[in-house]
């Protein structure tokens, strides 16, 4: 039996939101680590918690090097969110 689907919307209750944040943050960082090992790719994940101002980081190598590599990348970057694919220099 599979898990029940949850509605993806803002969690109003602060305590539930904090618990969900911690669990999903840990899951995301675990998946990032696994992907970097399994596929030999360079990954940097930055998470800013707007509730308490904390910042969390995962990097498969040096974060500064990865961010510099991204900033100087001349190709097309696939984005998920408001736009599917954009050239990243339009964002800088």
TrEMBL record:
Entry superkingdom: Eukaryota
Subcellular localization is given as: Nucleus
Domain MADS-box: residue ranges: 1-62
What molecular function terms (GO) are annotated for this protein? DNA binding; protein dimerization activity
What is the predominant subcellular site recorded for this chain? nucleus
Under SMART domains, the record lists: MADS (SM00432)
PANTHER family from the UniProt entry: SERUM RESPONSE FACTOR HOMOLOG (PTHR48019)
Q: What is this protein called?
A: MADS-box domain-containing protein
């Amino acid at each position: 039996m599979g898990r029940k689907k949850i509605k993806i919307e803002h969690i109003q209750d602060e305590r539930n939101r904090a618990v969900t944040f911690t669990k999903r943050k840990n899951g995301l960082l675990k998946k990032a680590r696994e992907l970097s090992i399994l596929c030999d790719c360079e990954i940097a994940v930055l998470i800013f918690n707007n509730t308490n101002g904390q910042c969390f980081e995962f990097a498969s190598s040096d974060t500064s090097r990865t961010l510099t590599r991204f900033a100087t990348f001349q190709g097309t970057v696939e984005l998920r969110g408001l736009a599917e694919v954009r050239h990243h220099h339009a964002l800088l």
